[in-house]
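Repro case for the chain-ordering regression, as requested:
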Amino acid sequence: MLNSVTKVLLEQRKYWNLMFRMAIFDIKGMYQTHYLGSLWQVINPIIQIAIYWFVFGLGIRGGNPVDGVPFFVWLLVGLIPWLFISPSIVQGSNSVHQQVSLVSKMQFPVSILPTIKIISNSFQFIVMLSLLLIVCIIYNINFTIYIVQLPYYIFCLYIFLFSFNLLSSTIATLIRDYQMFLQSMMRMLLYLSPVLWDTSSLPEAFQNLLKLNPFYYIIVGFRSSILGGHWIYESPIETLYFWTLTFALLYFGSKIHLKFRKNFMDYL
Amino acid sequence: MKVKVEVKNVYKSFELHAQQSEKIFDLFSIKKKNRKEFLAVKDVSFKVYEGETIGIVGLNGSGKSTLSNLLSQVIQPTQGEIELKGVPSLIAISAGLNNNLTGLENIKLKCMMHGLSKRKIEEVTPSIIEFADIGDYIEQPVKNYSSGMKSRLGFAISVHTDPDILIIDEALSVGDSTFARKCLDKMEEFKQRGKTIFFVSHSAGQMRTFCDKVIWMHYGELKEFGSAEEVTTKYEEFTAWFNKLSIGQKKEHKKKMLAGQMRFNHYLEQVKSEKKHRSPVELIKSVLVLLPLVISTVLVLLGI
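-- result from build under test --
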């Protein structure tokens, strides 16, 4: 039953080195012509963080903390994963369409193209996570035992991005409208995730609806790991939902990827 | 002698869509009726042995490029089979370089993508730079290159990745005569080493001196396959005859031949659709994956 999933996963393992080296070239190519170079990888998110903090923190919330946590820290913990998720998904979904004409002339495992985009965005993510650590120290946030959950949620984040991109990159190659749709969806999802605002004031039914967004699980997870408060086993249904969704994406993603990958060129 | 490439009754059809929406119906294999398709390659079969150099000639639009794409596995045949013993590599004019990176970085990246090890890349880089011969520009971003420089670099990289089967699709028509000479010498070297080369060109002279056999593609069909001298002469006779025709006659001839490549109602599709039948096992698997998802979705919505 898992033939296609195993095949795709084995390819990722086999070409692990190649993916890393290509991700480095990816970043190089992106910033080579810029005077500030890869510094933009940090400047860009900082500008975004500043504007969201100004509008949502100072403007709408009037500088009030969320559950005793300063809003700035509360925002950062949610926004930093989001600033990794959003470009990884948009670029990852486009990656196959963008590069398949290049790689089809050689024996190249197409399934690693979306993963390369996740890796190249990870460098920025790691830098931002270390900045987050500095901010937490400045704000005197004491890490609690809950921090041990963080590796689990980071793992969730990566496996979800991989599964989603595998399916998404195939669809985006076959149907070009999908990429447009996805870009608008991602812009919308930022507001439907508990990144910028606290959703706990919503009626219960709406909150449950928002929980269907898989990033809800990840972002809430990041917050409860870094700021403390919840254990994974306290939300078993959400965990079950997240993993069944991820598995379904992985399963259908591998299947249609393998089915269409030989014919990608015909759909360009 | 060992058979290196075997092509068995290969067809390649391209569907002609009157509307964009038809494409999406095809994707989900519904409403397939009266769709026009164009047979770019029609029932082509041949065998090529180790160390042979095969030329491919034909008019524009006769299916040469489709055939070379099929041989290099860039596209898959609609019907029929292609058996390759070895790794093919297509060298086309569109070299596929990253414009933002420098020439040197492009060499590294392309070699990497071809699966060369780090050591091997360091080994071949000097000889690629030597072969491309573009001087100090190697340190510049590729976007500053002239089109000739781009194809030189692209060609230099491709021949150094050491493929078993080379497919050269009119790549030599760019670049000056000294570079073309250099490329031909390089190919001669490949020939000596027993590699199989497919060579698409319009030059009858190159065909005669360089190829052992020649394939003549004519409106999707393999018209002639035989010794270089014989086929090239026949092809030249044909082009001479064709050029003598008046413009009206040429159009008439073309129209007639192109009509022969059009098909309705998917006569190739019949073979395909038999394979397409969804087995019930697959369906059960899909349900098994989706069912837990549906259940957990409901549970989340109920807020249990």
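Ordering looks correct now. Chain A has one domain: 3-267.
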